[in-house]
Amino acid sequence: MIYAGIDAGSRAIKIVLIDGESKEIVASSCYPQSIKPGEKATALFKELIAENNIDADDVGGTVATGYGRNMVDVANTTITEITCHAAGINHLLPEARTVIEIGGQDSKLLKLETNGSVLDFAMNDRCAAGTGRFLEMVADKLEVKLEELGGLAERSTVPATISSMCVVFAETEIIGLLSTGTPREDIVAGVQSSIASRIVSMAGRKILLPIVFTGGVALVPGMREALEGVLEQPVMIAENPQITGALGAALLAHKRFA
Amino acid sequence: MIDPKKITLAEWDARYDDLVATGLQEADYGGRLTRHLTDGDFRLGTLQFDNSPASLRLWNFLLTEEDRLHEAKENGMHIVGTMKDLGTLPVMAYSLPNTVAFYPDGAWWIPCVMEMSAGLLRIADELGIDESFCPVRAMLGAFVTEAHFPLPDQLFCSVGATCDDFSAIAQRLNGLGHEIFWWEIPHRRVPSPNEETVELPNGKVVVSSQVEFVKDELIRVKRSLEEGAGAQLREEDLRGGIRIANLIRAELRKLRSRVFKAPVCPLPALELLIAEMLAIHFCSDRDECLTVLRELNAEVEARIGAGRGVLPEDAVKVYWVNPMADLKAMNLLEAYNCRLCGTDFMFCHALDQISEEMEPMEALACAALADPMVGACADRAGRICENIREFGAEAVVISKIPGASHCAFEGQVIGGIIEKQLKLPVIELEIPPLSDSFSASIGTRLEALTEAALQRRNQ
């Protein structure tokens, strides 16, 4: 039997299919989100199983997660992304005790029990200043591609100080820095350090070792180094970090429906 | 007893007809809950309520407080606005003849209850007190419009180890020409080894000189109150006032203990929150306050006896820290299969007995010094941990109040202590006066908290 996890995130829809016996990933996909998350996720799910010659009857269970989880009709049940990321990371890196997940519109910090269940968690509040959206805004403002940010940050000699707690004011701050001739490299390094600081301050009491970094932003070059710099601890990146939530959802689907 | 359940405001109308048809006895402020909606309390239309006659009385009592205050004013009673001490000055004021006290601070819920239609926050903005301050700034708007509570004859406010935001807002109020009698409360410090000490009602020990200082401050307040009311506050009357306050507090403690410890939740979180608020100022009618609480206790006792509740038996037991700016948060908590199982709404000193053995002004000074806000937040966390152990909570929600200086960072301290002592999942939630647009993200956090607590329970 196949078990499916659908992570209907704010910026992307991620789908993972696993084999019920081996727990190996059979197929996965990642697409940009739309204004109708439920319909899009369902369509993409059907497309993915068709592409992989899987009959709908061979899917033993589907769990939806992410902010659009309640709109995914094809799912048998929903589980929050907190629990799903914990399950996904525990499967990939069972030793992990702290998970930092930075997605498109929110960021989370999970502390795990030794058996992988969630001991405690924290999420960012109303501001997007510690999220992927913030990095997109910065890349746009600096007229560079998202994937170029890491390379730029590496060349920084004096990272700029970004003091704003708010993405809107940070944008103003970046414009101000550009107008005073601050090199883009230093601005990028400052922004990445600022995001890392926000995550760590959100964590407060919650850092246990080892630490794993996941979510779409883990793919952005330089972010792991920024987190390591602020945490003063090594940070691992999960394999295929953007799909760990969907993987966890598929694993939980197996646990629940197998 | 009718099956306990949560119903909407519209459903309350039909329920009310049934109750009246079967001989419902009501207080003079009774009536349909929907009438408050037409008064502008639009939030009620989105809430879910307990369906008991006792809860009907509770809501009607709460929602008619402004009417009672206006009537008292028209009848020539002395109206006293007590701000910030949450539980001490009203005991004194109600011991005086012809005097009614209330908390203008309570206006912080008006933007929620009236869904911003009263424009109070906009007025506060115009007065320079913007959204970087606690939502209690709505109080400024209520003083400007005079559309809610009557302007009090006297205003008192504690300052010192209290909320910086509130002090700033009260100073702005003072600047608008509303004269305030300020009294000071110091930070409750840990006594040095050789210092003489006094035990407070919450079990904490303080330096005697701090009690003496606060007592002197309260004596100043007492003199001013006497002057305003045109009557002397005799010791036997104050002792009587303390006795009645203690009766109310005891009734509330009994209610909390029953609700939190019952195998099946016998009363929704929203009604318990409202009941807890009554203890701080008696909702402008001390005797009726006691009756309302006794009726609630009788209903809860009957439900527990019958093994009936308003939530599923497997609901996750959640301890809630701090008041929330949107009442709907209590409904939302239960929508994610959680039940309230312990609270610290920041006025838990108003739940403790005031000593009836001590000289009454000293007893009130001790009660004031037991305020969680005037001590270290580690003290507060200690009490919360004791409560969690007593009531068996499985998870903790710390509600952050937007802009409020006293809880900007203490959430992390309290959460850290809970985590260290009890290893329970803790989340912090920021709840604005109208949380509708955040309900999905608040819901995700509550749902994740439930999942984490259930995982632990099943292990």
Which structural traits does this protein have?
heterodimer, A: 258 residues, alpha/beta, 5-stranded mixed beta sheet, globular, B: 459 residues, 4-stranded parallel beta sheet
Poorly predicted runs of 5 or more residues of chain B: none
What form of chain B results from the Cα inertia axes? globular
Total of DSSP H or I helical runs spanning 4+ residues of chain B? 18
Largest sheet of chain A: 5 strands, mixed
List the quaternary state of the chains.
Answer: heterodimer
Taken from the alpha-carbon principal axes, the silhouette of chain A is globular
Number of strands of chain B: 12
Give unreliable regions of chain A as ranges: none
**H and E string of chain A:** EEEHEEHEEEHHHHEHEH
The percentage of residues in β strands of chain A lies in 15-25%
Mean pLDDT of chain A: 90
Strand sequence of the main sheet of chain A, in spatial order? 3-2-1-4-5
The portion of residues forming beta strands of chain B comes to 5-15%
N- and C-termini, Cα separation of chain A: 8 Å
User: Order of strands side by side in the largest beta sheet of chain B?
Assistant: 4-3-5-6
Q: In whole angstroms, how far apart are the ends of chain B?
A: 37 Å
Run of helices and strands of chain B: EHHEHHEHEHHHEHEEEHHHHEHEHHEHEH
What would you report as the Rg of chain A, rounded to the nearest angstrom?
A: 19 Å
What can be said about this structure in brief?
With 258 residues, chain A is of the alpha/beta class. Chain A has helices spanning 37-51, 81-92, 132-141, 149-154, 167-179, 184-203, 223-231, 244-257, and strands at residues 2-8, 12-19, 25-32, 59-65, 77-78, 98-102, 107-112, 118-123, 211-214, 235-237. In chain A, helix 7 links the parallel strand 9 and strand 10.
